[in-house]
Amino acid sequence: MVCIPCIVIPILLWIYKKFLEPYIYPLISPFVSRMWPKKALRESHDKNKGKVDCKGADINGLPTKGPAEISDKKKD
Fold first, then answer.
1. Which tens digit of pLDDT belongs to each residue from 5-26?
2. Among 64, 42, 66, which residue's Cα sits nearest to residue 54?
3. Residue 45: in which H helix or E strand, if any?
């Protein structure tokens, strides 16, 4: 058995998207564009943005226990 909100909310969202949004969106779009300027929507073109350093991770990408780097320095 499915709860009432699980049925009603998707149906109301579908009705809004299908029938009401074409009429309401042109009215609210000027206010939305003032609140969220286009500068905030642009993506940065930084080449290093998605890269992750995998030192200290096992084959699955999970961090390993113990020190991540092995030091070659001599201890006195």
1. 899 999 999 999 999 999 999 9
2. 64
3. none
Give the DSSP letter of residue 57.
Answer: B
Q: Which two tokens stand for residue 58?
A: 């096992």
- The first and second tokens of residue 38, run together, are 């286009």
Predicted model pTM: 0.41
Q: Report DSSP state, residue 40.
A: H
Name residue, tokens 């009603």: 8
CA distance 17 to 21: 5
Rounded distance, CA 51 to CA 66, Å? 23
Which residues does residue 57 pair with via DSSP β-bridges, in sequence order?
A: 63
- SS3 assignment, position 26: helix
